[in-house]
Amino acid sequence: MTHDSFAFDVQAAQGAARAARFVTPHGTVQTPTFMAVGTLATVKALDPDDLRALGAQMILANAYHLHLRPGDDLVRRLGGLHRFMAWDGPILTDSGGFQVFSLASLRTVDEDGVEFQSHLDGSRRRFTPESVMEIERNLGADVIMQFDHVIPGQSDAATARDASERSVRWLARCRAAFNALAHDRPQALFPIVQGGIHAGLRAEAADAIQAIDDWKGFGIGGLSVGEEKPDMYAVLDVLNERLRADRPRYLMGVGFPEDLVEGVRRGVDLFDCVAPTRMGRNGAAFTHEGRLNIKRAEYRADERPLVEGCDCAACRRFSRAYLRHLFLADEMLGLRLLSLHNVHFLVALMRQAREAVLGGAFDGWSRQWLDRYHSRTSTPA
């Protein structure tokens, strides 16, 4: 698939899992991959050089938060997000649709858009599909997401249909506004498939979205928002059958290790989540046997790295004992090192998944990896 400055080329597949190349104006992304979240134009505690060193290819920023602070107009005047945050690789911006869900107490939704009360200063801000396209144009990311209506994961069918159909109507408005705005840099607008945990609604939304335009990729939204994991996986199975296979698929806001592997098994190419840095700041580290809480007393004199064989900067140089000391002493380095390890862990996991697909071994690799992960004890090593 070639499309302006964007292309997606599937190199190998095993079942629904695939290894591909996603070409963007700021470089080629080898998929599947995990995208670190830089909500406010920074991945918390990590420098762009850290991200390059650990193998991050593409990162995220958030249009809602950057509109409030420092302002998308200012970012545009300063040369766009890439220059502003000194990241020369691909960037994706979320549209603020998730904040419709997460800031439910601070907003009202109607057919025209959403009125927010700023969580910073209480000021009223109105987001519409048209205004969000202008914000995302100003920010200048390579991939920009439509404005959509996100609802809790266990919402009933009527609520899910209302939000999903509104999201499709908003998509048509986003497309018109996107095409009407000045194109001073190439960008790809991705639609977002909603529909809750209801298979029929997801299928309807996928069909409706694909009837609107020849999109350069698809977002899968409204998951990891309170539903059970089997429900999420079932939705991915439905959409794997329904979405055209020659476009990248981005599973929004999903970033726990087992969900990444399960997602790749179901045809997902791109993932993102705040979990690795948020957990890292709270002393939790990803390992192949589950999560490790570095604050536990048992690690007081433990000379091992967080994960044996991990080549991240934290595991190469520091012991669990030292990392535990940093957390107990409230030293900032501890937050930074665990955040770095967790992002590295997910990026490396997706690199391993890609290599397994290319080598024709993904099915066995993924089953073995998941068996090991799920067989962990309640207190992993």
Report what the structure shows.
- This protein has helices spanning 48-54, 63-68, 72-77, 81-85, 97-102, 129-139, 157-180, 199-212, 229-242, 257-265, 275-281, 313-317, 320-328, 332-358, 362-374; strands at 2-3, 6-14, 17-24, 27-31, 33-37, 59-62, 91-94, 107-109, 114-117, 124-127, 143-145, 188-190, 192-193, 218-220, 249-251, 270-273, 284-287, 290-293.
- By secondary structure, it is of the alpha/beta class.
- It has 2 domains: 2-273, Queuine tRNA-ribosyltransferase-like (TIM Barrel, Alpha-Beta Barrel), CATH 3.20.20; 281-374, no CATH class.
- Mean pLDDT is 95; it is low at 377-381.
Write the layout of secondary structure elements.
Blueprint: E1 2-3, E2 6-14, E3 17-24, E4 27-31, E5 33-37, H1 48-54, E6 59-62, H2 63-68, H3 72-77, H4 81-85, E7 91-94, H5 97-102, E8 107-109, E9 114-117, E10 124-127, H6 129-139, E11 143-145, H7 157-180, E12 188-190, E13 192-193, H8 199-212, E14 218-220, H9 229-242, E15 249-251, H10 257-265, E16 270-273, H11 275-281, E17 284-287, E18 290-293, H12 313-317, H13 320-328, H14 332-358, H15 362-374
Parallel strand pairs: 5-6, 5-16, 6-7, 7-11, 11-12, 13-14, 14-15, 15-16
Antiparallel strand pairs: 1-2, 2-3, 3-4, 8-9, 9-10, 17-18
Helix pairs in contact: 6-7, 7-8, 8-9, 10-14, 10-15, 11-14, 13-14, 14-15
